[in-house]
From TrEMBL:
PANTHER family: ABC TRANSPORTER PERMEASE PROTEIN. PROSITE patterns: ABC_TM1. The chain crosses the membrane at residues 21-43, 76-98, 110-130, 159-184, 205-230, 269-289. It comes from Marivivens donghaensis. This is Sugar ABC transporter permease. Belongs to the binding-protein-dependent transport system permease family. The lineage of its organism: Bacteria, Pseudomonadati, Pseudomonadota, Alphaproteobacteria, Rhodobacterales.
Amino acid sequence: MASKPLSARLTRNLNAKIAALPMIITTLVVFLGGTIWSVVYSFTGSKLLPKLKWVGLKQYDRLWSNSRWEISIENLFWYGIFALVLTIAIGFLLAVLLDQKIRFEDTFRTILLYPFALSFIVTGLVWQWLLNPEMGIQHIVRSMGWESFTFDPLYNPDLVLIGLLMAGLWQGTGFVMCIMLAGLRGIDEDIWKAARVDGIPAWKTYLRVVIPMMRPVFITTLVIVAAGIIKLYDLVVAMTSGGPGNASQVPAMYVYDYLFQAQNLGQGLAASTMMLLSVLIVLIPWAYLEFGGKKHA
C-alpha cells in the first residue's frame, strides 16, 4: 500500500494540532526559554539585575563552598529517601486495603485523599499547631496526666525533619493511594482466581505477581513523588522557615533567598540549575525505562 502524501499526513487531526499550538508555544517560550536563560546567567556575576558579565564556574564554586547549601542538600537527601519510600509503601498498603471491596469505600477514599486537596501552606500551618508544645500533641498528652511527655520536633534540630516528614506523608499518601488503587483495579480478576485455585497466599500473589505487573505505575509514582520532593518549599516555610537555625533548610529556600532577598541573581540561578539537574537525574532514567526499554524489548 502506497504511503499517504506529506500534505495528507500534516493535515490529519488538524483541529487538534491547532488547539495544542498555544500550549506548545507557551511551553517552548516559557519553560524551555526560561530554563536556557537561567542556565546562561548562572555563569555570570549578575546581582540585582541580569548582566552578561561572565565569571565562569565561580558561582558554582561559591555555591558548593556554602555551608547552608550543603546542609540544604543533606536535609533534602534524608527527607527525600524516607518520604519516597514511606509515601509509596503507605500509599500502596492503603490501596490494597481499599481494594478488598470494603463497605463505605468511597467515604474512606475521600477522607484519605482530602489532605492532598489542601495547599502545602495550609498543611504546614495545621501541623505547626499540632506539633506546637504549647497547644498541640504535647500539651494534650500532658493535660491527661503524663507530665513528663515531650514531643516538640519542630523545636529540636535533631528531630525537625521528622516533623516535616509527618506533614508531608499526611498530605501525599492519599494521592499515591489513588494511583496505586487505579493500578490494582487494572489487574485481571482471572489472576486472583487462578491464585486462589492454586492455593497461593494473598501476600505472595501481591509480591510475586501483582507488584511486578504494576511496574509502570510504581515508576510513574516514583517520578511524581521525587519531583515534588526536589522542589519542597511551601511546607518548610509554613512549618519552620528553615529553622531552628539551618536545621530544616532546603535548596528551594536557598534559591528564593538569593534571588529575591540577597539580590544575588547569579548565585540563585546557579542553585536553581543544580535543582534542575536533580530533576533531570530523575526524569532521564524514567524516560529510558518507559520508552527506551520498550524499544529494546
